[in-house]
Specification:
By secondary structure, the protein is an all-alpha fold. The protein folds into 2 domains: 1-200, no CATH class; 208-408, no CATH class. The chain has 22 helices and no strands. Helix 6 packs parallel to helix 9 and helix 16 runs parallel beside helix 19. The longest helix is centred in the middle third of the chain and has 37 residues, at 229-265.
């Protein structure tokens, strides 16, 4: 579809349910519910079921209310979240239509995340990890079979989002039945467990979803920039979500139940060691990801997106914002690890305050860099990265000050080994990467094979360099 009016409208509007999803689903709700469920697991199974049923009832009513409100007042939502579209009638009309089609996805996917929280708490990680696959398949089906038949193909993609939510919810049911924990509708906001979830969730709305809120601020500001800016940011963000989703969010999802259980057991040493392990693992994964995304930014984008109406100029612009976001990737990943350590201890207020300052910092920097300094969509990406580093450093200071996190011995040696391996990868890519202009002479399969080759060779070299220093990845997986 190219970086044009239709895709701009779609990516901006999809940020609205996506941000609410991070609040009601994987973000604030998940981090509030899992510690409470871990506490109730130490009690009778009937109390666990009662907590799940009443939480399900409360969540369902809230989600229905928000969804109905969004459908009835779609123009207001568009005015708030995409004010720049109001000067362009076509974008405004598309945005309102897309919002009304896609917003119900929030209802379905939040219940999917609720189910995933239950399964993860009982060490069932496979299905929740597999579930997003069905979202992708739904969009692929919509794009290939239905989009070409419509005058405005973007509507097919929007309906693909809607049906993806229904499919993702249905596939959760068998696993919950097997556990004997399929939720039943009960509504009692006075239930002590539900009240605790709400208590933890309110500050968690800000603390747990800060990166998404920052991206939403960037999207709102991007609606005032030239046509294509929201799409370029969207493409960059999609590539950032690959390491974030596969590794950072996955590790955060796994350690939250673990940290919650350790807190209940009052095992402070194991709590700190688990946090230390996860930080090191994120750094080992994050550094090569940053190097690869920065040095191969334009090549990756042109191989994946440059076809149809998406031009070489779009690839270049999207690569600029990808580089700016990639420099903050390690910080974005660490946020997914550090924030759960507060929620596991049922102390959400401190990360909330940090998140508020980060949000303010991001908004100020975004305005200054994008508009006053004229950096456009790149300035928005730089602001997000800088505010992410502020969040990470502040959270680490708090964890050290509270003596929750005590780094293990050997961090200096760890940094030396990590820098050696990262430098090896950096030199390899600098000397052997292909210029994007020559890469365009290849067909799409050739381009993808080139990216695949560079990734595989780069990974092999990086792992070999780590091995030469005596560091093995498998030592972090046991």
């Amino acid at each position: 579809m190219g970086a044009g009016v239709a895709l701009d409208a779609f990516v901006v509007i999809m940020k609205i349910p996506s941000v609410f999803r991070r609040l009601f689903a994987e973000g604030a709700f998940n981090q509030a519910f899992v510690p409470v469920l871990a506490e109730y697991k130490e009690r009778d199974v009937s109390e666990v079921k009662n907590l799940i049923n009443n939480t399900f009832g409360t969540l369902t009513l809230v989600l229905l209310s928000v969804t109905v409100f969004a459908l009835l007042f779609a123009p207001i939502f568009v005015m708030i979240f995409a004010p720049g579209f109001y000067n362009e009638p076509l974008k405004k009309e598309l945005a309102e239509d897309i919002l009304q089609i896609t917003f119900p996805y929030l209802f379905f996917v939040s219940l999917v995340a609720f189910s995933g929280s239950i399964l993860n708490s009982y060490q069932k990680f496979s299905l929740p990890a597999l579930t997003p696959l069905f979202y992708n398949l739904s969009l692929i089906v919509a794009a290939i079979w239905f989009a070409p038949k419509l005058e405005a193909p973007i509507y097919a993609i929007a309906w693909g989002v809607f049906f993806a939510g229904i499919i993702q919810l249905i596939i959760q049911i068998p696993s919950l039945v097997n556990l004997g924990l399929l939720p039943r509708f009960k509504f009692n906001m006075q239930h002590p467990g539900v009240r605790k979830v709400i208590f933890l969730m309110i500050p968690g709305v800000i603390a747990g979803g800060i990166s998404q809120i920052n991206m939403l601020v960037d999207t709102i500001l991007a609606s005032f920039l030239s046509t294509g800016s929201p799409s370029w940011l969207y493409v960059s963000d999609r590539l950032m979500q690959l390491p974030l989703g596969i590794f950072a969010i996955a590790i955060g999802t796994v350690i939250l139940p673990r940290l919650s259980s350790l807190f209940v057991e009052e095992n402070k040493e194991a709590f700190s060691n688990t946090l230390d392990w996860s930080i090191k693992l994120i750094l080992i994964i994050g550094f090569p990801a940053v190097i690869g995304l920065v040095l191969l930014s334009e090549s990756i984008i042109l191989a994946l997106f440059e076809r149809g109406a998406f031009t070489s100029a779009d690839s270049l612009q999207a690569s600029y914002s990808l580089v700016a976001l990639a420099f903050g990737l390690v910080a974005f990943m660490l946020i997914k690890i550090l924030t759960p350590s507060f929620f596991a201890r049922q102390e959400p207020k401190k990360p909330m305050y940090v998140a508020l300052f980060s949000l303010l910092l991001n908004a100020i920097l975004a305005w200054q860099l994008a508009f006053n300094l004229g950096l456009g969509h790149v300035g928005l990406a730089v602001a997000s990265s800088l505010s992410a580093f502020f969040t990470v450093f502040t959270l680490l200071i708090l964890l050290r000050k509270e003596k929750v996190y005590d780094p293990t011995d050997g961090w200096l040696i760890f940094w030396v080994k990590l820098i050696f391996a990262s430098s090896s990868l950096l030199l390899f890519l600098l000397f052997f990467k292909q210029d994007p202009s020559s890469l365009r002479e290849l067909n799409n399969i050739g381009q993808l094979l080139y990216i695949f080759k560079m990734v595989i060779l780069g990974m092999a070299l990086y792992l070999l360099a780590l091995r030469l220093t005596g560091m093995r990845i498998k030592d972090f997986l046991t």
